[in-house]
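Minutes, project check-in
Item: structure for the 256-residue chain
Input as provided by the requester:
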Amino acid sequence: MENGNDSISQAVIRAAAEAGALIRGSAFEYALEMKKKDDPVTTLDRSAERRIRKVLEELAPGNYIGEEYGHENRGASTTYHIDPIDGTKSFVLRDFESAVSIGVERDGKLIGGVVHDFMRDIAYAGFEGDCYLLHDGKRHEIMGSHPFSKVRLSIDNETGLASRLDSSYSVHERKGSIALAMAQLAAGNYDGMVCASTGKGNSWDVAAGYYLLHARGFDVRDIDGKPFDYHNGTNGIVAIRPDLEKRVLHDLGMRE
């Protein structure tokens, strides 16, 4: 029998929370190695993904696509895109702009996602269009938009775009987890984000964040203005609050 969407959402929230607690509890005690140059992996990445898969297998089993343990196809209609620590480099450097990210796909369509900022214990969750925050076991509604006068943007420093903006903008230099940046934008912390690169284009990096942005009405594009493909998004991400999109893109000199 296939799992219902309610059981899936609760399973994903629990899996992300348990993995986050595991990571937070050992955030200064783990072994580190390099997959390749400047591409770190920790023992916590692996133990957290094992915990996520274990919880999902017990509560709402499906197919799994994970960063550390690859693709496990069970022939189910539900597929989980799992990044146990998105932003591992930031985690290792103790910036802690890192998060557990789990995107949920059913019959080839994203239906939900959770991005869990484990060091702050804030989960950005969304299922079937309903987006909200979870902290200390309680649900909180998202802001929708922040109360400040300046347009707040999250931008990679490698884009060089921040220098084009005047004092009506407040620019945050994005580091670490791209999933967390997407979730924070969806929650109203920022008005837009520009990411020059999404790395190797793996779905586990961006599926959950993409779902949250899409559910909140953002038109998510790549750096060239083409629709963003969360399955193979290697050409950056641009997402701007709809009512500010035309102005911001003009001021950035990206599109008229």
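Outcome recorded: DSSP finds six helices and 14 strands in the chain.
No further action items on this chain.
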